[in-house]
Amino acid sequence: MNYQKIISQIYNKILLEENKGTIPTYIPELARISPEKFGVYFLNLNQTQIGKGDFQEKFSIQSITKVLSMTMAYRELGNDLWKRVGIESSGTSFNSLVQLEADNGIPRNPLINAGAIVVCDILLSVLKNPQEDFLKFVQDVTNNSSINYSLRVANSEKSVGYRNFALCYYIKSLGNIKNNPIDVLDFYFKLCSIEMNCQELAHTFSFLANDGVKPHDGQRILTEIQTKRVNAIMQTCGFYDESGEFAFRVGLPGKSGVGGGIVSVMPNQYSIAVWSPLLNEKGNSYRGMKFLEKFTTQTRISVF
């Protein structure tokens, strides 16, 4: 299959179409990004690599990092992780509080804000130096020691993160946060501030396309069954209350972030990352969603 031709045709076509959506101005640092940025990077497990547009420009990957924190917690706790956080799609917005009381402080899944906050609490309890250890884990998975937190973005998000503060303290009141909420939130905001470009992002997630093994060096990150379950959670929960729509139109496990990034994997074949900052009404990249729908439609390759 001529992936180069398909990717170029889709990219160029979308570039000529209307670029709809809005920038998430509630995080001041993200509001500064040009809405016209658009990058795509494709990585096949046979090492075919294709980049288009702004694929080498770093951006804040935001909630995409939640897959990596979930992965690290899953490695540390195994199936005990699911005693603290669920595996069901929430059906509500990513920062919703409404289900927590009915669910006794157990977030529906690790990829909404409440769930990621609980995962941060878990990592604070099991890691010796949580922020340093997590960053080293991400650098190792990415095979890039330059990956780092953005203190500028973290502080910007913290300055307006009132709902995340509410989530953390409410979960604490229900007994599912064990550490000091200030420490948990500081870790959470740092975690969401990690910056990558599309190329780095596709390489980072390639282990989830390869049965839990990093393609470049053969190091195992997750077992095969753990990889299958992480991919399943991305498929059902990776796009907040638009996860069903993404499964319907694209048909790949993936994760979005309000920085405009989306990364998806096709198990045993490839990983692909797209970045375009304008978001649709559900908080997912408008161009990113459109690109991936056209890509799986034209290649006729998806998990369904």
From TrEMBL:
Alphabetized GO MF terms: glutaminase activity
Domain of life: Bacteria
Entry keywords, A to Z: Acetylation, Hydrolase
Family annotation (InterPro entries): Beta-lactam/transpept-like, Glutaminase
Binding site for substrate: S63, N113, E157, N164, Y188, Y240, V258
Gene Ontology biological process terms from the UniProt entry: glutamate biosynthetic process; L-glutamine catabolic process
Reactions catalysed according to its record: L-glutamine + H2O = L-glutamate + NH4(+)
EC number: 3.5.1.2
Pfam families: Glutaminase
NCBIfam families: Gln_ase, PRK00971.1-2
HAMAP family assigned to the protein according to its UniProt record, in alphabetical order: Glutaminase
The family this protein is said to belong to: Belongs to the glutaminase family.
Complex formation: Homotetramer.
Protein name: Glutaminase
